Amino acid sequence: MSILDWIDFGKVSAERDDLLSHYFFDNGVLRAVCESPTSFLVLGRKGAGKTAIFRHLTENPRDFLGANDLLVPLSFEDYNWNIHTLLTNENKAESLLYKQSWRFVILVESLKAVAAWFSRTGNTPPKQIATATKLLERLFDSPVPTIYQIVGRKLLSLSGFKLPKAGLDLEEGSLDSVSMEGGEVSFEQVQKDQSLRQHLSENIENLIDYLDNALSSTKEQWPTTFICFDRVDEAWDEVSYDASRKVIAGLVAASDSINAQYKGKLRPIIFLREDIFDSLSLNDANKLREDCGALLHWTKDSIASLMLKRVNYFAEKYGQPLVASLDALFDKTEMRQGARPTRYILLRTMMRPRDLISLLNRTVDAMKDKANDPFADEAQTFDKLECDSIYDAEPGYSEWLKLEVLEEWKVQRPSIVSLLNAIQNHGSTNFSVESLSIELKKLSIEEATADTLENLRFLFENSVIGFRLGSSNEWRFKCFYPSQGFVEANEYRVHHGLVRALNLTETRKPG
Prior knowledge:
46% of the residues lie in helices and 7% in strands. By secondary structure, it is α/β, with parallel strands linked by helices. α5 packs across α9, α5 crosses α10 and α17 packs across α18. 38% of the residues are buried.
């Protein structure tokens, strides 16, 4: 059987990979976060696999959580982000503007999960939980709908009446006094009417206090509850950047506060792009990253294990021998410059699963083109992956990688476009601070040396460039050496994976 009849590496996008649960590989970050009571952030670059581990946790919670722990997965692909703007407190710092609205989301979802657990296990819920659940049903229908439905017209209707204050001291009978009268209210109406906005804000504040009290006063009676957030960057674009940055900062602030308050019993966990986290206006952002976060990073061994698990899933499915190593897939032991095939490929990735999958899939596509060549005299078959097809796949892959970098940074750092243009105009893989400044000036970008160095630091932190280590021939790129800090150098080099897309000339033998 030709290798093309069975080989597959899965889809680049975890959201579209229906087979992900069959060959998911955990590099340890998910278990580390779940087992650390203070952790609530899973950070990683675009394409590092955050959605993949979110999906795996959702589909296999018992692999990572305790036997009785509760899990509420929330993916914000279709979500009414605008509602949060109606619940802001303009007198608070940027990172706290949307904190309360996110506390509301977390507490509602937690109460629903806890109430469902009591019902499912046949245990009698504490009075506080039962009454709070009845209140939500009274306000938002029974059973309590999803948060995606609540944070919409149902929430807007809270602006149409005055919810009793005084701690919402609602006994069984007084629940009847809470009603949702007054008809539907539109977003535009609330946005324009200060009175409606004030009523909505006050009602949400009162609800938050009530739900918080119900959960915190009974936390010893219900299991540890995880509320997981994925795809909170769905509105991350040029138009919504400023608002999205504040909304996401509010989610981080709310999660930090709740995690500390409930001492790990109520556990929000946010799966978030590292570059987005770095752009947020947060107090003690570095402390949060160090103390409350885990970075989703791959090593040579872990990323190879991930790919082998995928390959061997398909090998077993088609009755083929299991593959012992990635190098064993290829028809040659060495490529140009004497590099092994896997080393050659890894050097052109940024150590992200998405990069490796993309390049290998394109290699297979190049081989299929040869096998189906309508002008070939004889049909070509392959027992192994062809190293020459890696070279054929590089131009398309390199262009894809360039677009990935632009997509990752075009919103919060639009200067990435000019920086890549300047490097491309220079025409060489290796360049100096001075040569980059010259090319930027040609693009009518005048900047001080300190600004150019800051741009170089930014490019290094995102593995677009690396630098020579001392006088050696060793080049350091952040993706391969994550603990390496930026160092001012005489010479910098563009990442191997971007060379073809930027049409650069190799000026030195790669180190």
